[in-house]
Each structure stands twice: as C-alpha cells, then as structure tokens.
C-alpha cells in the first residue's frame, strides 16, 4: 500500500506584511513588529472563518478548514505567550529598586 501526498503548496501561517518604516528613516521599531503580529493573527482568524464557511456551504474541504483553524489557534497562542512575556518583563522592571 503506497501513501500519496498532495503536492499543493503550503501557505505561511502569517501572511507577509511590510511594516511602514518610521518617519526618521530608521528601521521599524518594536511597535511595528507587534502591529504586524496582530495583523497576522487577525488575517489568520479571517482565513479560518472563510474556510469554515466554505466547508459549511459545501464548497470547501474539511481538511482545509481544520488546517486553517489550527493555524489560527497557533497564532493566537503565540500572541498570548508574547503578551505574557511582555507583562512579566514589565512587572520585573516595576519591582526594581530605583
């Protein structure tokens, strides 16, 4: 029994986005990186919603919908972990003696 794989290309979990550089002409800052992360999470959730809607309508594949949902969940978990690390760093800084 031979196993066959679908040769369709795999799309990235986060769509490529180009953050706008700051007015001073330097490299994008931390805020731009966070904005890009949040935009990617939002786009991933939208893709998952569209895939599930297509599946329910009968025009989409169940596997595609499940993969899109898993990518959206993973992106959200990553965002939550980044938020947790930022909160932990903020609390550590606030505990430092002046």
Coarse shape: elongated
Radius of gyration: 19 Å
Order of helices and strands: HH
Instruction: Report the count of strand segments.
Output: 0
**Strand share of the residues?**
under 5%
- Percent helix, as a range, is 55-70%
Mind summarizing the main beta sheet?
none
Write up this protein:
With 98 residues, the chain is an all-alpha fold. It has a domain at 30-95. It has two helices and no strands. It has helices at 30-57, 62-95. Helix 1 (30-57) runs antiparallel to helix 2. The radius of gyration is 19 Å and the shape is elongated. The model has no long low-confidence stretch (mean pLDDT 82).
Task: Based on the model shown, name its key terms.
98 residues; mainly alpha; 63% helix
Give a brief description.
The chain has 98 residues and is mainly α.
Secondary structure layout:
Elements: H1 30-57, H2 62-95
Helix pairs in contact: 1-2
């Amino acid at each position: 029994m031979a196993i066959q794989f679908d040769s369709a290309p795999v799309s990235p979990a986060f769509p490529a986005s180009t953050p706008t550089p700051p007015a001073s002409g330097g490299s994008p800052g931390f805020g731009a990186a966070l904005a890009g992360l949040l935009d990617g999470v939002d786009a991933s959730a939208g893709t998952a919603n569209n895939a599930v809607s297509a599946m329910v309508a009968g025009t989409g594949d169940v596997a595609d919908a499940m993969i899109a949902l898993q990518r959206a969940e993973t992106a959200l978990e990553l965002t939550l972990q980044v938020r947790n690390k930022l909160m932990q760093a903020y609390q550590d800084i606030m505990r430092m003696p002046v």
